């Protein structure tokens, strides 16, 4: 999986570096809610007033729920999630996506049928949603539509929201015009491109009016 460099591109990470960067990405997603749980427990250890105890318990409950949702999503989006050749229910993918992404600012409109799809196609969809979420930093709506049908179905994710924008370098990382930097943020769109290639697809990210469109076709 290692690559050669050319003008304007970086060398692709080898398998070991790819695994390490994906692990860093998962840790990045989990550190905030896990840290909040620790903070809540520290408040409880200080024998707090009743109102502070209630606040700490609510913080722990909310953060534990967030951490669980992110773990489940990351297991499906980045992990093995079943044996080679396994299929995944799009209904389960929808539940994971909502638990991870819907946070009071961002909502999902899911227009996909409930059916089993090859594992890599579902992983591709979830990673497309992560990219789409980054285009609406102030919140908005992600609309997921099918392209085609059956096991060869691909996807279109439309991001709409205030100040929707193209994140720097993401389109180039998806297209292969730019190699990934050695950080957890850049590795996710690079991994999305690898998933698309494994499915025989290409992922594009482009503006369309006031919306941003992520397409796998």
UniProtKB/TrEMBL annotation:
Pfam families (UniProt xref): HPTransfase (PF10090)
Q: Which residues form the Histidine phosphotransferase ChpT C-terminal domain?
A: 91-210
Report keywords, A-Z. Transferase
Q: Name one GO molecular function term.
A: transferase activity
Q: Which residues form a coiled coil?
A: none
Q: Gene3D superfamilies under this entry?
A: 1.10.287.130, Histidine kinase-like ATPase, C-terminal domain (3.30.565.10)
Q: Which NCBIfam families match?
A: HisPtaseChptBrucRhz (NF046018)
What's the name of the protein? Histidine phosphotransferase
